[in-house]
Amino acid sequence: MPVPVPRQRAIPAVECGQAPAASPDSGPSKEQAPPGTHQAENAATRRENTRENPTEKREKPTDTSTETSTGTSAGTSTSAGTSTSAGTDRAPTPGVRAESAAPTNLTVLLIEDDPAGSPIVPDLLDQSGKPIRVRTARNLTEAGRLLTDDVHCILLDLALSAPAPARTNTDGGGSGNGGDAEGDDELAVLRHVLELAPRHAVLALTSSSDAERGAEAVAVGAQDYLFRDELDGRLLSRAIRYAVERKRSDSAERRLAEGRLRAQENRRLERGLLPTPLLAGSPLRFAARYRPGRSRALLGGDFYDVVRTPDGTVHAMIGDVCGHGPDEAALGVELRIAWRALTLAGLCGDELLGTLQQVLEHERSDDEIFATLCAVDISPDGRRAGLCLAGPPSPLLSRPGTPARLLPYDNNGPALGLLPGARWPRMQVELGAEWSLMLYTDGLIEGHVGGGRERLGQDGMVELVRRQRAEGLTGEELLRATVNEVRELNGGELADDLAVVLLDRTA
User: Fold this and answer.
1) pLDDT exceeds 90 at position 270
2) Sequence-distant (≥ 6) Cβ neighbours of residue 322 within 8 angstroms
3) DSSP secondary-structure letter at 423?
4) How far apart are CA 360 and CA 335, in angstroms?
5) Contact 277/474 with Cβ under 8 angstroms?
6) Of 145, 267, 320, 460, which residue has the fewest beta carbons closer than 10 angstroms?
7) Is residue 153 predicted with pLDDT exceeding 70?
8) Sheet-wide strand order for 302-308
9) How far is 495 from 325, CA to CA, in rounded Å?
10) CA end-to-end span of the chain, whole Å?
């Protein structure tokens, strides 16, 4: 049985950017093609052909032209189910002239259901004088099929019949007429279009006697409204370009506002995750400096905390998760909160660090992630301290009349997360009656000195602090001057996270 071939029809100029010549038996066209193109058959003829041949409603004609405005080729379907790409060489179709399409910059989707077939949209040209391609949909179902990514603007006739509201059953029997309030909304069809195409510009078309309805359409979400009985090509072309640019501007402004809100929320969250020392009743003075290595971040992989337990012991801790991204920052917060909870529960020394390692092993995203940590517990009288080191640099102790020095780190244990079942011995340290103890992460000592590759190191940091203390700096002033000088020596911002905690006791 021969395969039936559907009757072909010409594509109007406003739809494909070029108009084929009319067949000899056709009458004069009522639609004007864009400059430089042939006349196209009018909308009434298109609808008549569709009524005569319903199966041809969505079929593309076999044509040798290629749509250049969208960069994609339209497919042509046959009744046998095979698909052929437009632009492929084939025999010319009777009544259709094969010639190249005029390139277009904008594509418009017109949604209107005028049964008389009168042209609602005049000839349209973009800013460069090229024709604007217009697709026509008679209802929202067709609009959904034609609304592709290359559509820039939607022209919506507000006289279009709104979709029937959902019928609800309120009495448990058959269908009722309850519906929802949207069925009485004159702008229901516009609301449906805005839901269907949230990223597209929408121009509402209404009559000149119903300006109030057009203004309401803009309030609902349309970019502008126009009077359909006063349209001309120049006005409509300018309105389309304006609507597209306004939609782009609104979208960019919305994304910018959303980005600002997210940044503000992140800053509030990060500030909330920074510790609040619990030192009520302690004679010790506390100071801290914190600088994340990430640009525009408030929180990095370094973490610290200080708490005083009911027996008067002051516990201080500083740690560093390897890396300095958001995942490392989150893990550092978890370890800090776990340390505070375990400390307030009465754990210290090797038992506390062993439990923290279990937390790290369960929470880390990769088995290679580890964390260094220094924990100090200062006796209630303030003269002695217990020290546990899990891979960090040794704390710096300063006392009046003696130069600053590093505490011994011969019994330094491994970093958390490196060795299962590791132990961290607790060392006893004599502090004296008056002292200053500085805990810090390696971000303070790994900066460069000058323009070379030499690192500051612990020895350079010790000399720097000695000089600052000789100038009479203490507390916050000492930390601020130390961090600023380290940055200056590095020639700018440090690449790694940095945290410093200073505890002072005066006689």
Assistant:
1) no
2) 301, 328, 369, 370, 371
3) -
4) 7
5) no
6) 145
7) yes
8) 302-308, 314-321, 371-378, 384-390, 427-430
9) 12
10) 110
Please state, in angstroms and rounded to a whole number, the distance separating the CA atoms of residues 151 and 153: 6
Q: Reduced to 3 states, what is the DSSP secondary structure of residue 399?
A: strand
Cα distance between residue 82 and residue 73, in whole Å: 16
Q: Please name the helix (run of DSSP H) or strand (run of DSSP E) that holds residue 134, with its range, or none.
A: strand 133-137
The angle that helices 211-220 and 188-196 make with each other, rounded to 10 degrees, is: 30
Mean pLDDT of 335-343: 96
Q: Which amino acid is at 2?
A: P
Residues 6+ apart with CB under 8 A from 267: 298
H or E segment to which residue 388 belongs:
strand 384-390
| 418 or 197, higher pLDDT | 418
Q: Exposed, middle or buried, 319 (CB in 10 Å: 0-12/13-18/19+)?
A: buried
Radius of gyration of the chain (CA): 38
Instruction: Decide if pLDDT at 479 tops 70.
Output: yes
Sheet holding 498-505, edge to edge: 285-291, 498-505, 435-440, 396-399, 402-406
Distance in angstroms (rounded) separating the CA atoms of residues 447 and 487: 8
The Cα 250–Cα 222 span in angstroms is 12
Determine phi and psi for 340, rounding to 5 degrees. Answer: -65, -45
Taking the C-alpha atoms of residue 343 and residue 309, their distance in angstroms, rounded to an integer, is 8
Token pair 């006005």 is at which residue?
Answer: 235
Q: How far is CA 366 from CA 62, 231, 311, 373, 390, in A?
A: 58, 64, 38, 19, 19
- Interatomic CA distance for residues 26 and 6, integer angstroms: 19
Has residue 336 got a pLDDT over 60? yes
Structure tokens at 273: 């995750």
Give the CB-side neighbour count of residue 414, counting CA atoms within 13 A.
11
Q: What is the pTM of this model?
A: 0.55
DSSP character string of 481-495: HHHHHHHHHHTSS-S
Contact 123, 33 (CB under 8 A): yes
pLDDT at site 161: 67
- Over range 73-80, report the average pLDDT: 35
CB proximity list for 74: less than 8 A, separation 6 or greater: 60, 67, 85, 86
Question: How far is the C-alpha of 249 from the C-alpha of 328, rounded, in Å?
Answer: 37
Cα–Cα distance measured from residue 18 to residue 373, given in angstroms and rounded to the nearest whole number: 73
- Yes or no: say if 93 and 63 are a contact pair by the CB < 8 Å rule: yes
Structure tokens at 204: 């509402």
Q: DSSP for 305-371?
A: EEEE-TTS-EEEEEEEESS-SHHHHHHHHHHHHHHHHHHHTT--HHHHHHHHHHHHHHH-SSTT--E
Query: What type of residue sits at position 506?
Result: T
- Give the CA-trace dihedral at 134, 135, 136, 137, to 10 degrees: -150
Q: How far apart are CA 130 and CA 134, in angstroms?
A: 13
